[in-house]
Amino acid sequence: MRVSIIRPFLVLVLLSSIGFAKPTINADGVVSAATYLASGFPNSGIAQGSIFLVFGSGLGPAAVKQASTFPLPTTAGLAGTSIKVTVGSTSKDAIMLYTVAGQVAAVLPSSTPVGVGTLVLTYNGAASDPAPIHVVKSSFGAFTLNQGGSGTAVITTPAFAVVTLLASSKPGDVITLWGTGLGPVTGDEAGGPLPGDLKSLNVKVWVGGAPAQVLYRGRSGCCTGLDQVAIKIPNGVQGCFVPVAVQVGGVISNFPSIPISPNGNTCSDPAGLSAAMLQQAANGQNIKVGTILLSRFTSNFKNTPIGDLVVSQDAGSAFFYSFTPSQLIASRGITALNAFGSCVVWQCRGAACVPDSQALNLTRLDAGSAITVTGPNGPKPLTKTSTGAYTASLGGGLNDPNYLDPGSYAVTGPGGSAVKAFTANLSISASPIDFQAQQNGQDLSGTISRAQDVNITWHGGGSSGYAVIVGTSTSDATSDAPQVTATFSCTEKNSVGHFTVPSWVLSALPASGTLSQGGLSVSNGFLLMGSYPDFATFPATGLDYGFATSLVISGNNDQYQ
After folding, report:
1. What is the pLDDT of residue 175?
2. CA distance 156 to 259
3. For 410, 430, 479, 505, which has the most beta carbons within 10 A of its beta carbon?
4. Phi/psi zone of residue 529: left (φ > 0), alpha (ψ -120 to 50 degrees), beta?
5. Buried b / exposed e across 165-193, counting CB within 10 Å, b at 16+?
């Protein structure tokens, strides 16, 4: 009798100590299911009634388990996983959508109070440490084809056909953006969908910088937490990557894109994607592309302890990719230039944020051991940093002489296993664009309000080519949020001579932290303007398309407030 009692007791002890590992939530691992934004951004809050994700380890079973019928599980959990969110003295059970060891998706009940709280995930009876969560009323995020919050948005026509680069929309069309985070609804969210136009919400949508008529803003009729925003595309906008942004109650969304063409067929861009390239993708062929950029970045650091300090940095880069048709359709394009008259914002963790193709996991093409840039100041190598990627600082900074002086340049590659020998010719302009930036009719004096438009006028750049306005702001890391960076880029024709960067674009940037460089501490924000000449093309065996250009960009070190 004694043995039969002791054995079950020992089994229980062993199970409690080694049977169920404690789930671990990653640092800053609670994010919007549409945008994945880190908590340091102004639009990173988890909206009432929205779909969110939890990343970590030991969160659920090894194979994904999805809730497939209504009512959706809450307190009882899904395959052993449940989530409780507490704000103040109120706790709510999240509505479970799917669970797997490294990732869990759920809907935050609309009745969850607004504020900073904690999230605890329990799996098989073992609870995680509390993770922070910031609950807000509204913070819309648009889903994208690359499932990373950037690139082409998930858009449908009234007939539920998906809008793509090969079957674009046109001005006057009614389309639907799919996302999450519009705001709370009333009713039993776990019991089924709760569609209805949330007309009380202050929802604004911009397409290519132009306001769009909003026809519907509310939950879908299929799914809990899934939102639809139906709009009419305004006149006067076109391109393969026309940015779209949704603002709800003053909070801006991510900045995906919409393909728009005059006739609604295959789109095209003046720099980058052509109808021929897209037709190649439509035929099921991969697209092999090379891009080369030589750039001079000049910044004026004002009022430092040693006075005003002008620093120029010269850089070069070359990238060689292969896009599958599906990757090309989901991408941000080849040159990352958005449609004329519009702005796009990239938001990234860490101290830098530039457009890239990481979300697509593109195949990179080997073009040799190194690439050489030759110009008025002699040859310089672009170092191979990984397969298909070549970058280098070419000169400038606090210690080295400038390299990219005005003149003609040849970029040559010896050839590799995928891309054979090539030469690309391009030129550097004589001087940067001369521009003036103002807020409220006053010249900027080192600080930029993110709540007010910035009006910019310029001279120079030539009668052709592309003027680009770039602003970037990097936060300081805190105990509550990681360091994050947002960069906006606005594109216009050189010949236009003026542009307004809207406050709703600036509102996506974090407040600027501190940058330490060369023993000096300055604000970690910049406002710059530059000009691209028309893109040159170059041939190479192993590539379908080669693009080369230069960028001379300059501006001031500024504090975004």
Report:
1. 98
2. 12
3. 505
4. beta
5. bbbbbbbebebbbbbbbbbbbeeebbeeb
DSSP one-letter string for 193-244: ---EE-TTS-EEEEETTEEEEEEEEEE-SSSTT-EEEEEEPPTT--EEEEEE
Q: Is the dihedral of CA 424, 427, 432, 435 positive or negative?
A: negative
H runs (alpha helix) in 404-548 = 503-506
Confidence of residue 71 (pLDDT cuts 50, 70, 90): very high
Q: Residues 389, 344: contact at Cβ < 8 Å?
A: no
E strand map for 305-444: 307-323, 342-349, 363-364, 370-375, 378-386, 389-396, 407-413, 422-428, 434-439, 442-443
**Identity at 137, one-letter amino acid code:** K
Q: Which residues contact 178 (CB under 8 A, 6 or more apart)?
A: 142, 143, 153, 154, 155, 156, 220, 226, 227, 228
Mean pLDDT of all residues in 476-504: 93
pLDDT, tens digit (0-9, with 9 covering 90-100), for 340-349: 899 999 999 9
pLDDT in tens, 217-237: 999 999 999 999 999 999 999
Q: How far apart are CA 179 and CA 230, in angstroms?
A: 11
Region class of 172: left (phi > 0), else alpha (psi between -120 and 50), else beta? left
Residues 251 and 181: beta-carbon distance below 8 Å: no
Q: Cα–Cα distance between 352 and 347 in angstroms, integer? A: 9
What does each C-alpha distance from 27 to 39, 124, 301, 489 come to in angstroms?
10, 22, 34, 29
Confidence grade of residue 422 (pLDDT, cut at 50, 70, 90): very high
Q: Tell me, what's the pLDDT at 301?
A: 80
Say if CB 446 and CB 303 are below 8 A apart: yes
Query: Which DSSP helix (H) or strand (E) runs through 525?
Result: strand 525-532
SS (H, E, C) 267-294: CCCCCCCCHHHHHHHHCCCCEEEEEEEE
- Contact 33/123 with Cβ under 8 angstroms? no
Residue 534 has pLDDT above 80, yes or no: no
Which pLDDT does position 279 carry in this prediction? 83
Q: Which residue has 């009876």 as its token pair?
A: 125
Residue 71: is the preceding peptide bond cis (ω within 30°)?
Answer: yes
Which tokens is 292 given? 């080369």
Cα 340 to Cα 14, 237, 501, 519, distances in angstroms? 65, 9, 13, 40
Closest by Cα among 535, 272, 545 to 425: 535
The tally of CA atoms less than 13 A away on the side-chain side of residue 410 is 9
How buried is 118 (Cβ within 10 angstroms: 0-12 exposed, 13-18 middle, 19+ buried)?
Answer: middle
- Is 5 strand, coil or helix? helix
Instruction: Find residue 214's DSSP bridge partners.
Output: 231
Q: What single-letter amino acid sits at 353?
A: C
User: Whole-angstrom Cα distance, residue 557 to residue 487?
Assistant: 14
